[in-house]
Amino acid sequence: MSDSSIQILPYSAERAIYFKTINLEWIEQFFVVEAEDAKVLNDPQTHIIDKGGDIVFAQYQGDIVGTCGLKKWDDESYELVKMGVTPKAQGLHLGQKLGQAIIDSARKKGCKRLFLESNRKLTPAINLYKKLGFKEIEFQDSCSDYQRCDISMEMLFD
């Protein structure tokens, strides 16, 4: 598979159904869907886009196979949220491409700190985030709406 065979697409209302579907599939592999997840997945326009965040999609061979969200916290801080890849696309290394696209979006928005919270159960994801340039930091339970996390990571920009 060549890198050019995966396209990164911007958010659109028509693609919102993919945001929900892909992320529900991903979340349900590991967790019960919590209220905060449901709010974002059911209405990403209100909870991510309208607040100054972003959502990107990965398309492979004509199908939407991955998605990643960027939630705005303040003028300089954003959270990487809801990266999901369809089961059939696992192994295509989409996470790296999605992650880089959302990092580029954060930079364009003037982000100084990009953070994420995850769970050690997701060791392969932690390795991906480290490859993207995230550093593990002391857990900060006041940063996110999600309660199931036990690891915090951040990326600082100049």
In a nutshell, what does this entry contain?
This protein has helices spanning 16-28, 35-42, 44-49, 94-108, 123-132; strands at residues 6-10, 54-60, 63-72, 77-85, 113-118, 135-137, 151-156. The protein is of the alpha+beta class and 158 residues long. Strands 1-2-3-4-5-7-6 form a 7-stranded mixed β-sheet, sandwiched between helices.
Please explain how this structure is put together:
- This protein is an alpha+beta fold.
- It has one domain (3-113): Aminopeptidase (3-Layer(aba) Sandwich), CATH 3.40.630.
- It has helices spanning 16-28, 35-42, 44-49, 94-108, 123-132; strands spanning 6-10, 54-60, 63-72, 77-85, 113-118, 135-137, 151-156.
- Strands 1-2-3-4-5-7-6 form a 7-stranded mixed sheet, sandwiched between helices.
- Helix 4 packs across helix 5 (123-132).
- The model has no long low-confidence stretch (mean pLDDT 87).
Key traits:
158 residues, alpha+beta, Aminopeptidase, 7 strands
Instruction: Report low-confidence residues grouped into runs of 5 or more.
Output: none
Strand content: 25-35%
Head-to-tail CA distance between termini: 34 Å
- Main sheet attributes: strand count, strand direction, barrel closure: 7 strands, mixed
Q: The CATH topology is what?
A: Aminopeptidase
How many helices does DSSP assign?
Answer: 5
Query: How many structural domains?
Result: 1
CATH superfamily: Gcn5-related N-acetyltransferase (GNAT)
Instruction: Return the CATH architecture.
Output: 3-Layer(aba) Sandwich
The main sheet orders its strands as: 1-2-3-4-5-7-6
Shape: globular
Helical proportion? Answer: 25-40%
Give a count of the beta strands, DSSP E runs of length 2 or more.
Answer: 7
CATH class: Alpha Beta
Mean pLDDT, all residues:
87
Written as H for each helix and E for each strand, in order along the chain, the element string is EHHHEEEHEHEE
